[in-house]
TrEMBL record, chains A, B:
Its EC number is 2.2.1.7. Keywords: Isoprene biosynthesis, Magnesium, Metal-binding, Thiamine biosynthesis, Thiamine pyrophosphate, Transferase. It comes from Blautia difficilis. One of its GO terms (molecular function) is 1-deoxy-D-xylulose-5-phosphate synthase activity. Residues 284-448 form the Transketolase-like pyrimidine-binding domain. Its cofactor is Mg(2+). Belongs to the transketolase family. DXPS subfamily. This is 1-deoxy-D-xylulose-5-phosphate synthase.
Amino acid sequence: MTDYKIIQTINGPEDVKKLSMEQLEELASEIREALFNRLTKIGGHFGPNFGMVEAEIAMHYVFSSPKDKFVFDVSHQSYPHKILTGRKNGYISDEHFSEDSGYTNPEESEHDFFNVGHTSTSVSLATGLVKARDIKGDKENIIAIIGDGSLSGGEALEGLNVAGSEINSNLIIIVNDNEQSIAEVHGGMYKNLAELRETGGTASNNLFKAFGLDYIYEENGNDIASLISLFRKVKDTDHPIVVHIHTQKGKGYEIAEKDKEGWHWCMPFDRETGKPTISFGDGEDYTSITAEYIMQKAKSDSEFLVITPAMPGSAGLNKEQRKELGLQYVDVGIAEEQAVAMASGAAKNGAKPLVVTNTTFIQRAYDQISHDVCINNSSVTILLNYNSFDSLTDVTHLGIFGLAAYTNVPNLVVLAPTSKDEYLAMLDWSVDQKEHPVMILIPGNQVTYREADKDFNRLNHFKVEEAGEKVAILALGDFYQRGEQLSAKIKAELGFTPTLINPRFASGIDKELLESLSERHQMVITMEDGILSGGFGEKIASFYGSSDMKVKNYGLDKKFYDRYDPNELLKEVGMTPVQIIADICNQIK
Amino acid sequence: MTDYKIIQTINGPEDVKKLSMEQLEELASEIREALFNRLTKIGGHFGPNFGMVEAEIAMHYVFSSPKDKFVFDVSHQSYPHKILTGRKNGYISDEHFSEDSGYTNPEESEHDFFNVGHTSTSVSLATGLVKARDIKGDKENIIAIIGDGSLSGGEALEGLNVAGSEINSNLIIIVNDNEQSIAEVHGGMYKNLAELRETGGTASNNLFKAFGLDYIYEENGNDIASLISLFRKVKDTDHPIVVHIHTQKGKGYEIAEKDKEGWHWCMPFDRETGKPTISFGDGEDYTSITAEYIMQKAKSDSEFLVITPAMPGSAGLNKEQRKELGLQYVDVGIAEEQAVAMASGAAKNGAKPLVVTNTTFIQRAYDQISHDVCINNSSVTILLNYNSFDSLTDVTHLGIFGLAAYTNVPNLVVLAPTSKDEYLAMLDWSVDQKEHPVMILIPGNQVTYREADKDFNRLNHFKVEEAGEKVAILALGDFYQRGEQLSAKIKAELGFTPTLINPRFASGIDKELLESLSERHQMVITMEDGILSGGFGEKIASFYGSSDMKVKNYGLDKKFYDRYDPNELLKEVGMTPVQIIADICNQIK
């Protein structure tokens, strides 16, 4: 049992400033113990935090938060900062774990300024703090922390460019260079960072200087004394300066130091062995199905090309598989705009590109999907993982906005598969056809097995899985199984067989079929895995607006939910079978 | 009358290759004459094309399009290329003007690969062409043309970064450096470009080299012989190389050379004087109203801050006004992500930021609106111009997707004003409040004058402008006047007074009011200036889905319309008063 002698005395940054150098070193090891305590038990971001312990101690030693303002990029590296700003209990005291989110969070502390979870945001957000400070005539230090692969995102580069000319006052940009992204880094700038590391910051063609920024380098990014001296040098600077520090991702845990990609993020694990202490059963999942499809397709079709913005894990691709794919695989680094535009170009020159990432991140390429791909009808397939209310529940990583964002983009065919067979059929069809941009929403539920029609050429053709009467259930994508359950309950409790429909296409409506439902049905129910606003069901409601058909849309509210219980949420929005049956009884006679 | 001796012989790039150096020079002046012919009569992009005449001649002289592939950025600088690739008639023959769009267009010619109109896309699109070429084992040259301010966009920077490491084959990036964006350039990189120009390309901290790219400089960007020799040097290169050429925006027309911003784009004009030959009447427009509001607000409120991504014209701000705004104005250059994120930061540090641009461009910051602003409930006001079917009709610049894109983002209050008074009241309210992110859609119709309620604190509170019976018309934003016309026609022809509602809020619904309509109404009509899919009306239809109220949504189809006649389009979607009255007669008894 660790006794956290120093941590126990830290209730805020002012307590950090009281410590001797020796005590600061001791604090660093206690912080790593505290991180182990939380991460072995509930998991979280490992490597980014272990690498930044010393830097965050030195930051709080030199600067005066919250007057001086730290803006963390992604903010998955902010755990030591949280421990130092009154939130130690979320790390050393198990019953308090749930009080701290995995990201910075202004509702938790005045030392946090933004809820963030997407990369490449900190410089741009910090320039805004700077601009407001300057028009108010204030004088505090504004410090952006960025790194861990996120420099390659367009927003960060736009931010550096603007900081390099439009800001003429204090702005400190700490570049946490751990030689790594989630997976390995990609992009010419990383050759530049390597040259800078090798030359102690003196290499020519310095990227930051090219953007008009002042620059300073520190090799010992895990040495508190060096960092304190460094930060003292730049404190109260009167112009923007980049502080490039070389840190070691995962420092302090040998297993993580050796496998940086594997330990970017961790499940609960055993500290001795590094092995996860929970498991998800042995059955296959959609990620492994995706990886298998990709490897087979690449072998059999030399035009097939996989592009990912730093998220090979979304497709279950491990290092060996990525290597095996060779020329048919491109990781563009954290750069969603580039990934989508590149895919459009590749399609126009005869390749069959598949872009893979998470739903929450692809919104960074909204314009590229609309303008670069869809206006041009480029036959790009965009494959999205974690597109469900039932996957990631952090407010910054929700997968519930995809239907609203993309089903309204012209020309884009959004497909929502309901089983393994249908998922693979959709992939096959989409990758091989040359007429349409397609988005496929990987189901968020357990893998289910049902045979599927394999032809999707007739766009927006919904499939009637069971013909019935009175009530028609349109259950979209991974909510199809909920539709099945509802159907069974209606049969059992209400004594009739409803019609069960698998829409397959989320981006259009089957007018002919909907028209024909009017004959034997009084009510249409839609069920979808996302917010209702702008999604699938509202299109159905609009279609029937001037008819006698009653329509009830089931889905989530337009809301940034945060760390919720998925089952409770379904109850909250009235979507359990019991609640829906009650609604039906109110409607049909 | 120009006789276009050389141009008449050019039916494709092969004819350019046959010319002597003297004839190429003559061709350049004939192209300028052809540009004058089109631009004096129908307007278009002036400066970008006049500056690139020599470069595009040299490109077609050295490379072999369409085997070698040119990808123009924005493609507003592609007119000389069009003249040289079989489309001269669109410039020299007035009756053929309409055959050529103002941008590259694959439907027009095999020499064009993409429909583009947004900036910063060419490098990323070109890397895709490269990747497909490489997996197919082909060998052609791929040439991206970028410049005119668009290097600062995130997509372009992501593209340069990826080109600098992930492409190991032929890719030529021509940087057209005319020292200018639409307005003046902003961003540290432009200091770097200036240093490179001043040193003949030898300055240290070369931005392109920092991204890992090879680099070559040419000072004489308007000299055909120098350019031919330059392009021959890089033709068939086996690696990515940046070819930095220094050109003069507007070259060949003294008035444009002197006023680069004013002549980026032009209305039809008189060549002698440079004065526009058409005018829009003397009345005020929403752009001048916006500029006036901004100047007054800035004077009276030191926390007010205007941020624009290179589109000061969207707010009607001229050079003198921008200067007068001083610290309270930031042009971040073409960098929508930065603009929106910066605004979020500024709001969090106590400023009152107003972001101004066009609807079609703000979609480049979709993630920043959602993640950086709305999750954080930053009190940012985003003000959008050209948000109407009746403004820009080029497929790449449509203003009809804003409602679908933004009314479904949680926390964002989307306001649709219906008159000058209401517009100003909404601006006042939004800028001063500290609770919500707000988007205001500047009306796309003529300025109208009606007094408005000034309180918007009760979100989603619709305003009943006239209470009536049987039919309720919800006419959103600049379609409110169409609602008034419809109401008048119903009174005259159907003999009853319908209820006329000004929703004001596009992003939510007034449940209480909608509920209350059930008493005296059988039908609700929604009218909106945009596509129906994902927009305002569908939310109303969903609300009434299980009631007896009939709902009919009027708006545009989910489609990339291109260069249409706005009045014809309204007929096509059944939205004229005559058509709506017929629908009503079918519904109500």
